[in-house]
Amino acid sequence: SALRELKETVKSQSAEIERLKLELSKKAEATDKKSGGGAAVSHGAHGGGGTEIEEEIHSYLDRPFFSLARHRVGWLTVFLASLSLTAIIMNGFEHTLSRQIELAYFVPLLAGHGGNTGGQTVGTVLAAMSAGAITEKDAMKVIAKESLSGLSMGAMLGLGVGVVAYYVMGISSHVSTVIMLTIPPLSAIASTLASGLPFLCIFFGLDPTVIAAPAMTSFVDVTGLLCYFLIANQIFALWGLEL
């Protein structure tokens, strides 16, 4: 009788073990399917260059520093050359600067703000792409959201900087107004470019981690500076100032 009960216990335990094995096997298959789907999304998001980009990411620690430098220097050279446009813009508005020297005080501030705004956006978009949270199909939705976010943020910051410039720094009212009105479109431009460039890189099979951030910085510096001086000319005209 005791032997029979022992056999029955062993048999029931064996059945339970087999059942647990089956459940574990099913869970493992489900996990593999999810992982495969995520990989597919990631690969699809990267287009034709997805495999190459993923290999570069995984081999990052094994790559020598000179290989990284050689991989990046080409695009950085292109963007460095494009930044020469800022010198052309400054030269074109030299007369405005000579009449309103206060404008020059805020050029580094605006350039830094554009880079910071775009840097936040491009980092967020690239992280979402890597996680598979967004794909190329979401491009317009992401760009629209980031553009409106940048514009709203710029309106708040522009008002704050304009008030501080006028009441704390003693900057003239017309230049403070220029700063206040430049920051919102600058923020919108930076957010729009920063959210759109990663998708553009993927569309052409390029590596967005290497290209998107420096391209955004270069374009924002040029467009932001141009926007700054164009707004300044309009505001000074409203104030009746001769340029």
Explain what this protein looks like in three dimensions.
The protein is mainly alpha-helical and 243 residues long. Helices cover 84% and strands 0% of the residues. Helix 7 packs antiparallel against helix 10 and helix 9 runs antiparallel to helix 10. The protein is elongated and about 100 Å long. Mean pLDDT is 81; it is low at 37-49.
The gist of it:
The protein is built from 10 helices and no strands. With 243 residues, the chain is mainly α. Helix 7 (107-130) runs antiparallel to helix 10 (208-238).
Radius of gyration: 28 Å
Largest sheet: none
Q: pLDDT below 50 for ≥5 consecutive residues: which ranges? A: 37-49
Query: Please, how many helices?
Result: 10
The dominant shape is elongated
- What is the number of E strands? 0
Order of helices and strands: HHHHHHHHHH
Taken as a percent bin, the fraction of beta residues is under 5%
Distance between the termini: 111 Å
Helix content: over 70%
Return the average pLDDT rounded to an integer: 81
Structural class: mainly alpha
What secondary-structure arrangement, pairings included, does this model have?
Elements: H1 2-45, H2 50-58, H3 65-82, H4 84-92, H5 94-99, H6 102-105, H7 107-130, H8 139-167, H9 173-203, H10 208-238
Helix pairs in contact: 3-10, 4-10, 7-9, 7-10, 8-9, 9-10
